[in-house]
Amino acid sequence: MASSQSRKFPGNLPFSYYLLGVLCLLIICIIFSIIMVNSQGSVENQKRQQQMTMDQTEAEIIRTITLIDSGRKLGEEAYYPSMVSVTDEALLLYQSGGSRIRPGSLEEILNQTGSQMDISFVNRRGIIESSTRPNLEGKNASQVFALISQLDEPDLWNDSFTLKRAFRDHDSGEVSITSTKPTPDKNFLVFVTLTNPQLIRDWEILNYSRSMKEIISSHPAIINVQLFSSDGKFIAGTKNQTQDDLKQDVFRKIVGTKSNLDIEIKDKGLTSRYLYIDLGETEYSGTRDVIAEITLDPGRSAGHFQSLWVSNILAGIVLFILSVLVLIPLVHALTHPLRQITDDVDTIARGDLEHPIRDTQGRELSILKESISSMVDTLRATIHNLRESEDLYREVVESQNELICRRTSDGTCIFANAAFCRYYKKTCDEIIGKKFFPETPGNTESLHAQIIHMLSPEKPSLHLHHRVIVHNGIVRWHSCQVRGFFSIDGTLTETQEVCQDISERIEFENALKESEGRFRNLIEKSPINIAILRAGEIVYANPALGSLLGYEADGSPVGSSFLTFIPEEQRKTLAERNSMRNAGAPVPNEYETLVTRIDGSMFHCHVLVSEIELSDGPATIAYLTDITRRKVAEEEVSTLYADMEQKVRVRTAELSRANKELESFSYSVSHDLKSPLRAIDGYSSILSQKYAAQLPDDAKIYLTKIRQNTLYMADLINDVLELSRIGRVSLKKERIDIGKIVREVIDEFSSDITDRNVSVKIAQMPPCTADPLLVHLVYSNLISNALKFSRNRAHPLIEFGSYSKDGQVVYFVKDNGIGFDMKYADTLFKVFTRLHNTAEYEGTGIGLAIISRIIEKHGGKIWVDAEPGVGATFFFTFGPEPG
User: What digits encode the pLDDT tens for the residues 103-118?
Assistant: First the structure.
């Protein structure tokens, strides 16, 4: 049993430490929340004050710029009349020169007016063609005039005079005012630029930069203010050249929306705020709106915020230390009962299941004590049951026929059942505890290493087939299920192999494959047309079918739909048949249809289909037979049959006439033959009665024989007429009770039966459908024969019964009379056939012929089984029952 010092636990600190840590963490969270709420409030107040100051500063900037711009505007308006006059003079000069400017003529205008201005003519391509400053001629106007970027504006090319506000070039320091007006032919723009020292003095007096410096000094967070025109030209402030190009996109966005914008300069920790100042000048070309860039340094106001945070954090630290000093003894007291229970549980965990759990204070801990005690009791019972289950499992494993082996990760066998040891002809001691591997045709240890490599926690089991060499050197096939067992960290600890010898199955599968190959070869060479279908598509067709459909030797219908070979008018019927078969409805598995060859010719085809199961799934096999010749023959037979029917109708009519003539003849014969017989019988009777005394004894005997033969002749004529009548009579079938008819016939012969003490046995017989009068005649003749041929028996017996054979009821009449030799059975039912002496057994020899004629007329059969001196049994049927 391991000692408590050797026990390893995931957590090596007491629970009280964790509880103290959680409480401390909770206190830290509470203190932190208080600090955050308090500091955040202070910071928010400070920010609101700074925002108010910033709003006031922005309003001051807007008001200052508006006032300065208004002052400058008043000074600029004094120069506008002279610029209009110079522009008009330049246009008159252009018109008088035939839309051309004479060299030196522009300077004359300036000399006449005494103006400090420059005049330039700019064509539509932006090139200066004429100017009072010759050094500008030929240059691009965009390099000379600050506002040339607006040259393509449509308003500049109408007939109006366009004035622009004064502009200062910060590179040269000059202040200029520009006006434009197009020539009448719209080929040039006349630029008049006024440059006057007084403008510079006015701008110096009304200075933006001085006002911006005063604003910067009044706000600690502002480090710079720059002013720009709406087209991005620098106006005032401390110019930063490196930022000009970067600001053009910002200016376009601000001008487009006419709104303010804030941008953070992350690499410097600064913020640039852009104010759009709308000066509202609609009477001038272009816009005088100003964009003010205010650069802010948020870090200048961070010092006050930091002091607020520091004071709050120090107060929180002091509060935390006081809380910890209070929590330490409190946690110790709270966790004492838990430590006590922990020690008891640890003792039990080390194997002492009889150790009791000590009592503790608190309802929850009492419940925990009772639960642990109950768990210990359950654990003891579980250990007991587990040991019993382990013994049972070992017995079950040992009794298995499968080869079971368990190994460590290095291949050492730690368990092998009896079947495993018997299979390899070794004792368990020779296998368990050793690295025993069954010998294989390849590298045995390499096979085990491959198995180890293929197992993983995600795929802990695998199934494989491999070969082994048994003790007698024979190679056997094994099917093995291998399962790996892994530790918590995913390391393979053990493997278990459950194997079966499947050599016989492998041999069977190989034989089956060979048989399938022979079967395929048989189909390929078979003259029968065979196709295999899936979902109506031909997936296999033997060469015979390809030839039947008109394909060449290298062609095949495989891949085609079977319906493509069926005429359009029959496809719907065949598709419905397939749908019904797929739905499980009963459908005949053979049918006839027309089939179209690939050359368009058609033939009649008989199709037999059957469902089969292939290795890759279910399919339908179809056998196709060309029945064109049979169809032609059937048509010929049908024609012949129609001709024959016509001939039968003619012959039937002739036969009907013949029957009528026969009936007339029979009546005549009956009348004409019976009259002489009656005369012979009458005169013979008179001789016997009146002249008996005179007649010798021989004459009397002769007269007796004459009368007997006359009566026999009359009976013979009656039987012949009856036989003829039965052949002509029409059947009147109905459902009859055979037993009832038999009893009626017995009643007719009751006197003979009673006088001779004949025993009659009538079994239960099923009804049948027949003509009741003719059935009555059958039984009457049979009973008459039975009574006649059993008259010499001391105890005559007649039996009536039935039995079933081939779906029909067979009725029989049996007697124990004199019987007969079965070699005469074939002639027994012929007319006038007699097997016995007439003197001993009377009769005409027509009765059985009448019975046979009645049975045949019903579509039945009659036969007899007899033995001399034993008796005879007559069997007969009345044909199949209707329906």
Answer: 778 887 877 777 778 8
